[in-house]
Write a structure and sequence with these properties.
The complex is a heterodimer.
Chain A: E1 13-16, H1 17-31, E2 35-39, H2 55-59, E3 64-66, H3 71-83, E4 87-92, H4 102-109, H5 112-115, E5 125-130, H6 145-149, E6 155-157, H7 162-174, E7 179-184, E8 191-194, E9 208-211, E10 216-220, H8 223-237, E11 242-246, E12 249-251, H9 256-265, E13 268-275, H10 280-289, E14 302-306, H11 315-321, H12 325-336
Parallel strand pairs in A: 2-3, 2-4, 4-5, 5-7, 6-7, 10-11, 10-13, 13-14
Antiparallel strand pairs in A: 1-8, 6-12, 9-11
Helix pairs in contact in A: 1-7, 3-4, 8-12, 9-10
Chain B: H1 27-52, H2 67-74, E1 82-85, H3 90-95, H4 100-107, E2 131-134, H5 142-155, E3 161-166, H6 173-185, E4 189-195, E5 198-199, E6 202-203, H7 214-219, E7 223-228, H8 232-247, E8 253-258, H9 280-287, H10 291-301, H11 307-330, H12 338-341
Parallel strand pairs in B: 1-2, 1-3, 3-4, 4-8, 7-8
Antiparallel strand pairs in B: 5-6
The chains are: A alpha/beta, B alpha/beta.
Chain lengths: 337, 352
């Protein structure tokens, strides 16, 4: 099996994004008996890509629980199990179906610490998978991270890199707070060399500069970060130096790194795979602008998001609907003009 | 009676007025149950009065008339079991041994409250006594109790997860998901339905084709019992059967207790003016099915209780409640920092 992430040998190991998630599951299930996984499709070879292959065989169906078609009860049960001292991971193979579980996530998991005066901590991890494209349409394509980023009490993480896919999942599960961990299947084939696993508290994780630059700050998360990195390479050919910041943690939202970067570059482009209005790109721009000294900007901030419309099914429309690297490149060139 | 879908005499307010048959019950346990029911009733009546007088700012959902259910069920529980509830939860908490002062302080929004003044009447937490939380989202804690049961099964503790909810909650979809999930996972979860025939202002006949909630337990292949919810002896016996079976690996159980609340959905009023199908006559007749008076009568018939003892108990409860209230009224408010410090486990600097 690939993708142990080098934690055994202590040497870097080539790993895909999908197998990095698998490595995190194996690490957690091997070391923490209170970790279990619950959700639909966990005994199926095709539901969740290669990110959970054979976990049921290795760790047993008592800990890898495939369930009835009941997102609401399963997520609520995970919240209750977390209150009882377990470290559950709920898997929603397509996050559109997570909407059935919104009470458990937003009313229950997010609120209990506050409304019990800091005594109850439902440390549940809720993994939502963005699974779009392929002419699946409006109810099989959504990226709803901005909704969860809006809710105090939830931590929301979106790994863009192979290392983060593994390490942020480990940090999420070991965190005492409820965490919504969102991965995008369009990233599963990315590969990278992974160092040995080091456990890090999730509250220490923040936005990170993945590539330095002087002319413009591009802020993105998840698959949009990959697009931004691709665009940055194209822009270098034209002599434009773009700095790419990966948000990684959307809630609690931290704008300090972005603000410092924009003070240097004077330009800000926010890219997101969610809708435009009230999306995470809006927060990136708003939170940065309120911190920036007047006169810091050389151009108006700009955002590239999904149009404010549900996902289409027709292949011809899908190509227009989803932003790509060339759209980022053309926008940056306009901002530099 | 089992799973017929109808409640027959149990929902007839003219029936079940006689003293409770205490049978072979130990006097010590009965006295303890009576004390608990009296404490709960007098504490809730005090809350109603303080709400009426304006000392309490938020809503209180009182369960006066329904005390036997929490007390009967709690008789069968142990400290490591995990109990969940909803908006009408004072009795469930107090019956586990929860602090009256802690409850009063919480309802007053004081720093010394059970939820440190952050929850009020509808968001209570008392982990030390096995009370794992109440919330006012109807049916919100039902799946949580399944998870607590699942955790107990996975760790082999022999504990149960238990959730109290009402006949209205049964109309929420997540209850049915939870019943099926508990059954399929063999989670030791006890579902306790306090069927008081009303959801807010709506009588069950206006909401469901049949009155017995246990018909849904049958649909999900879960063992169930339907009992007179104003008979603490019957409730304790039925709960003991279901809890013991769950502890031994028999999976979930479903207890339906038929009862009636003396006050309206919220606060101290009787709501006979706004309640559909809730008449003065019905209320008067249901008051004759008083779980406390019937228990006292049963104990007196058996020669283990007297009017003098009852008066003494009342006086004792009154003093306890008066002292707890006075202390809570003088307690400090939460500091302003509490607003941001408890959102995450790491305190205010959640992302630092």
């Amino acid at each position: 099996m690939i993708g142990h992430g080098g934690d055994v040998k202590g040497e870097p190991e080539r790993c895909s994004y999908g197998s990095a998630i698998l490595a995190a599951f194996e690490y957690l299930l091997s070391r923490y008996p209170e970790v279990f996984v619950i959700g639909q499709g966990l005994w199926s070879p095709w539901y969740v890509g290669n990110s959970m292959t054979a976990l049921d065989k290795k760790f047993g169906v008592e800990r890898i629980i495939d369930t009835p078609v009941s997102e609401s009860a399963c997520t609520g049960a995970a919240v209750g199990a977390a209150l009882a001292g377990m470290k559950p991971i709920v898997v929603h193979p397509r996050m559109d179906f997570m909407l059935y579980a919104m009470d458990a996530i937003v009313n229950q998991a997010a609120k209990w610490s506050h409304m019990t005066g800091g005594q109850a901590h439902p440390g549940v991890t809720i993994r939502g998978i963005i699974n779009r494209g392929g002419e699946q349409g409006a109810q099989h394509s959504q990226a709803l991270h901005a909704w969860f980023a809006h809710v105090p009490g939830l931590r929301v993480v979106m790994p863009a890199t192979v290392a983060d896919a593994r390490d942020l999942l480990i940090s999420s599960v070991l965190c005492r707070d409820p965490v919504v961990y969102i991965d995008d299947r369009w990233l599963y084939e990315q590969t990278d060399d992974l160092p040995p696993i080091v456990e890090r508290p999730l509250e220490l994780e923040q936005p990170r500069c993945l590539a330095p630059g002087d002319d413009i700050t591009i802020v993105a998360c998840s698959y949009s970060t990959k697009l931004a990195l691709d665009a940055r390479l194209s822009l270098m050919d034209g002599g434009i130096s773009a700095e790419v910041i990966d948000l990684r943690v959307l809630n609690p939202f931290r704008a300090e790194l972005i603000t410092a970067s924009v003070m240097k570059t004077g330009r800000l482009l926010a890219v997101d795979g969610g809708w435009t209005t009230c999306g995470i790109a809006s927060e990136v721009i708003a939170a940065t602008l309120v911190q920036l000294p007047v006169g810091s900007l050389k151009a108006r901030p700009r955002r590239i998001c999904l149009p404010d419309a549900p996902a289409p099914t027709s292949h011809a429309l899908e190509k227009t609907y989803y932003p790509d690297a060339s759209l980022i490149v053309s926008n940056v060139r306009e901002l530099m003009a | 009676m089992k799973n017929s879908g109808n409640l027959a005499d149990l929902s007839d307010p003219l029936k079940f007025h006689a003293p409770i048959a205490i049978g072979e019950c130990q006097p010590g346990i009965l006295i303890s149950q009576l004390r608990s029911m009296m404490t709960i009733r007098m504490a809730e009546q005090h809350l109603g009065e303080m709400r009426k007088q304006g000392y309490i700012g938020g809503p209180v959902h009182l369960g006066v008339g329904q005390e036997a259910i929490a007390v009967g069920v709690s008789t069968c529980l142990r400290g490591s079991d995990r109990v969940f509830s909803g908006h009408r939860s004072h009795a469930h908490l107090l019956a586990l041994g929860g602090s009256i002062h802690g409850l009063f302080a919480e309802i007053l929004g004081k720093d010394t409250g059970l939820s440190r003044g952050m929850g009020g009447s509808m968001h209570l937490w008392d982990q030390a006594n096995g009370f794992y939380g109440s919330v006012p989202i109807v049916a919100g804690t039902v799946p949580l109790a399944v998870g607590a049961g699942l955790a107990a099964r996975m760790t082999g503790s022999g504990d149960v997860g238990l959730c109290y909810f009402g006949d209205g909650a049964v109309e929420e979809g997540v209850v049915h998901e939870s019943l099926n999930l508990a059954r399929m996972l063999k989670a030791p979860t006890i579902f306790v339905v306090e069927n008081n025939l009303f959801a807010s202002h709506m009588h069950v006949d206006l909401r469901q084709p049949r009155q017995a909630m246990a018909r849904f337990a049958q649909a999900h292949d879960i063992g169930s019992e339907i009992v007179d919810g104003n008979d603490v002896v019957a409730i304790a016996a039925a709960a003991a059967r279901l809890v013991d079976r769950a502890r031994k690996g028999g999976g979930p159980g479903f207890l339906e207790a038929i009862t009636y609340r003396w006050y309206g959905h919220v606060d101290w009023r009787e709501d006979i003016d706004v309640g559909v199908n809730r008449s003065i006559e019905d209320l008067a007749n249901w008051r004759k099915r008083d779980p406390i008076r019937r228990l006292v009568d049963g104990m007196k018939l058996a020669g283990i209780w007297s009017d003098e003892q009852q008066e003494s108990l009342e006086s004792e409860c009154r003093d306890l409640i008066g002292a707890a209230w006075a202390e809570a009224m003088n307690d400090p408010w939460p500091q302003a920092e509490a607003l941001l410090d408890r959102v995450y486990s790491t305190g205010r600097k959640a992302g630092a």
